[in-house]
Amino acid sequence: MKTIIVDDERLAREELKSLLEGFSEFEVVGECKNALEAEELIASESPDLVFMDIQMPGKTGLELLEGLSNPPRTVFVTAYDEHAIKAFELNAYDYLMKPIDPERLKELHGRLTEENKTPESVAKSSKLSPGDKVFIKDGEKVWFIPVDDIRYFESEGNYVKVHFQKFRPLILRSLNSLEERMDENVFFRANRKFIINLNHIVNVETWFNGGLQVELSCETKIEISRRQTIKFKDQFSL
User: Fold this and answer.
1) CATH T-level fold of 2-117
2) Less Cβ around it within 10 Å: N or C end of the chain?
3) Separation CA 223–CA 221 (nearest Å)
4) For residue range 24-73, what is the model confidence (pLDDT) as tens digits?
């Protein structure tokens, strides 16, 4: 699991790196002392996991996460608990308090390991194409449906809500891993929270700050962020 550590304090980075050495699944591929460095490293390394401080010189960790269109799993590591609500509003994977409790880190590791073992969370090498069918399980309920029936995916904390027909099952996956499985000519990452099925778009409008708003066949309206709007236009304009 490619991992990045972001903290303006060198000793804090060293301490966390030492703790992570106890888990073979964590491969620390880089360290950063501020949000600017982290943004560049995330773009170049595409990590699976980021451990990030909140209070840093310049941009905060919260501001960095909020500005990323396709953020990796992010675990905030901070001495302050008052940012927890905002962190989880931004779909942070977890929130650890300094000094880090080794048992708390062990619990986090166990959750990540279990998630990766879950059939729904194991990414396959081949992308899903129109006409393919997918198996979805939520508790005791199961579905086997054409991928074309899925109107959109919605991030819900550590889960993703799959919208199709009248159903809204939750699966234990990240939006990033789903994006890797989907055909980019059919499913498009609209913003941090949504992946939409382009075949279900019935209307497109210009929106605030240079973005777009699309209406889907289910009458749901979803904003395409300004950054993703640029990609959308580049990919689909004549």
Assistant:
1) Rossmann fold (3.40.50)
2) C
3) 7
4) 889 999 999 999 999 999 999 999 999 999 999 999 999 999 998 888 99
